[in-house]
Design brief:
Helix content: 55-70%
Structural class: mainly alpha
Distance between the termini: 37 Å
Radius of gyration: 25 Å
Strand order of the largest sheet: 4-3-5-7-6
Strand content: 5-15%
Largest sheet: 5 strands, mixed
């Protein structure tokens, strides 16, 4: 595993660049800038390598080391001096936490809660094969195709989301995978960005005078929010986008200076270019950046430049969709006041209600959001429609967020908290809620992060005893949330993570699968030898199921739905396809293959998706 080498080099380069860009910023604000630059450098390197067809481990390592060298040259003695000062501050922070005695107990407890959450997520990633629909449908296929071809391209596939959804976090997953020896930890790719979210929470709380060490420790509770913990074990992008949102609003609301504005623009752009629901959040972040720039007219032009940077980085996929589909958020409708302006396949409201059950289905938007924030879910899972924030949010973060503006009328301390921490947190929360699916916990994970920053600041300004009691209650409720939700890493009918630890890898991987057919897929993938391919036609929409975990073999897409026997065999021979997924019925070629058992051996029938069944065949003479 070369993660320490690659990301160590990128962190060094980013820290030196941040020190050069923002030497006057607070240390936590500069740490936010460093985190953003790490992600931007990783994504940028992959794009450069993809442009020359060189995406691969060796080129990736060489590029990260070159970035570190560039940081050393560009940063110079001034940046090293800032870094040295930051290192001393980190040492002093550890000492302050150690010397705080009983006052630091909640902080230590928060770190323990976060470590438990990360351990569960890592254990799930290690024990289980990727099984979440979005991961197998379009997030991981982007990663695998880049490794297969060495390029970032329009991926030939039946899954429209692969090529129309913004993909910057998916590109970061490519960098993450290049840093791993194999696929074991590929679904833990959101964790590095989630850690940046913790830094963002601490940087917000710091504005109310919270010491850096306390803010960082208590900010770790965000990782223990059940939906965050559960999704850390899936190659989704919601936690990463939430973390980028926290970083973007922290940087966008700093006093406008050229260096911080540039990094704020990068953070906004990364967020914008990672999820189709991000434009409203990015727009409000850019508005905040312009307002901070307008306070000092000399910096307004810099703020405008920061917004331009954000659009250059993040708007590309939306522009491509306009060119190809005449709709920036295809396949969803663009609606204004309830009227479809730019047609798609469905409205965002319809997409948000997929899988929703009563009584929530009959509720209005606001009622549904409130119910989700206070509900006790029947089943915990990363993709739960109602609930997911856990008892920490319901019983501490939400009440304190409501109490702060009320108490600010009488308390100067709470007024300061509301002004310095509450305003950016409120902006982020309000922006995140601009969505028909705001009740869906994974879409709004930035909200508990923003409210956690407010809660940390409130606990700091309360009398010492009550502050520690508030922090301690938060830690206890976070641990309770973990205890309630950890079973959600596997379905109720599947063995728990602890039960799976003693089982062989094949049995572990088969225990949890989107279609309960993992063993069948394992055997099919095993037939694909080096240089051969696993093919599929438009009937199949989980291409991530087809790549081997060891990287051997390729995956290819046959766009035709009903080829003749000769056409199918010729295509398989041309591309050395050993195994093929073919659709059932009149729109598929499964029956054609069955009619020639001397050329096609049926392995099994896929039971997913139900609306377009398919069958898997071995090509008996795939090689030319």
């Amino acid at each position: 595993m070369i993660v320490p080498v690659a990301f160590g080099a990128l962190t060094l380069a980013a820290a030196l660049f941040a020190a050069r860009l923002a030497p006057e910023a607070t240390r936590l604000s500069r740490a936010c800038a460093t985190a953003v630059l790490v992600y931007a450098l990783a994504i940028g390197i992959v794009y450069v390598l993809g442009a020359i067809g060189a995406i691969g481990t060796s080129a990736w390592i060489a590029a990260t080391l070159a970035c570190a060298l560039a940081g050393l040259v560009i940063g110079g003695p001034a940046a090293w001096a800032v870094l040295w000062s930051d290192g001393i501050a980190i040492r002093d922070g550890f000492r302050a936490m150690r010397d705080a005695g009983r006052d630091a107990i909640p902080a230590w407890g928060a770190i323990v809660a976060a470590l438990i959450a990360i351990t569960f997520a890592a254990l799930s990633t290690y024990l289980l094969a990727p099984w979440a629909w979005d991961s197998l449908g379009y997030h991981l296929p982007i990663v695998h195709d880049a490794l297969q071809t060495g390029r970032l391209r329009h991926v030939p596939t039946s899954v429209v989301y692969v090529n129309v959804y913004p993909r910057l976090v998916d590109v970061f997953f490519i960098a993450w995978r290049l840093s791993l020896g194999d696929e074991t930890w590929i679904e833990l790719g959101q964790l590095p960005i989630a850690l940046g979210g913790v830094i963002g929470i601490a940087a917000l709380a710091e504005r109310a005078g919270v010491p850096a060490w306390r803010g960082l420790a208590l900010g770790c509770l965000w990782l223990a929010v059940p939906v965050v913990m559960l999704e850390l074990a899936a190659a989704y992008v919601d936690v990463a986008v939430g973390a980028l949102g926290l970083l973007a609003f922290v940087l966008a609301t700093l006093p406008a200076r050229p260096g911080t504005v540039v990094v704020a623009g990068i953070a906004i752009g990364l967020m914008l270019g990672s999820k189709p629901s991000a434009p409203p959040i990015a727009a409000i972040a850019m508005l905040a950046l312009l307002v901070t720039g307008a306070r000092n007219r000399q910096q307004l032009g810099v703020a405008i430049a920061g917004c331009a940077i954000a659009l250059v980085i993040g708007a590309g996929k939306f522009v491509q969709n306009v060119i190809e589909w005449h709709n920036p958020i295809w396949p969803a409708h663009v609606e204004v006041a309830g009227h479809v302006v730019l047609p798609g396949k469905a409205s965002t409201a319809e997409l948000a209600l997929v899988g929703m059950r009563e009584p929530y289905l009959s509720m209005g938007w606001a009622e549904r959001v409130l119910a989700s924030w206070t509900a006790w879910p029947d089943v915990w899972v990363y993709d739960m429609r109602i609930g997911g924030f856990g008892p920490l949010f319901t019983f501490v973060l939400l009440p304190l967020a409501i109490a702060v503006p009320i108490g600010a009328w009488r308390s100067t301390r709470l007024r300061a908290v509301a002004r310095s921490v509450g305003v950016p947190a409120l902006l982020l929360a309000a922006a995140t809620l601009i969505s028909p699916g705001a009740f869906w916990a994974r879409y709004t994970v930035a909200i508990p992060g923003a409210m956690l920053a407010v809660a940390i600041a409130v606990a700091h300004v309360l009398p010492r005893r009550w502050g520690r009691v508030t922090e301690g209650a938060g830690v206890v409720l976070a641990l309770l949330g973990i205890a309630l939700s950890w079973r959600g890493f596997t379905e109720d009918t599947a063995p728990s993570l602890f039960e799976l630890m003693s089982r062989p890898s094949e049995e572990r991987h088969a225990a949890q699968a989107v279609d309960a057919q993992e063993r069948d897929w394992q055997r099919a993938r095993a037939l694909v030898r080096p240089g051969e391919a696993f093919g599929y036609d438009p009937s199949f929409n989980l291409p991530g199921r087809l790549w081997r975990s060891d990287g051997r073999g390729r995956v290819l897409y046959l766009e035709r739905t009903t080829p003749s026997t000769e056409e199918l065999l010729a295509w398989c021979a041309q591309h050395r396809v050993r195994v093929m997924v073919l659709g059932e019925g009149p729109t598929g070629a499964a029956d054609t293959a069955r009619a020639h058992p001397d050329r096609f051996r049926e392995l099994f029938r896929s039971r997913y998706p139900q609306w377009q069944p398919s069958a898997v065949f071995e090509i008996l003479d795939a090689s030319p």
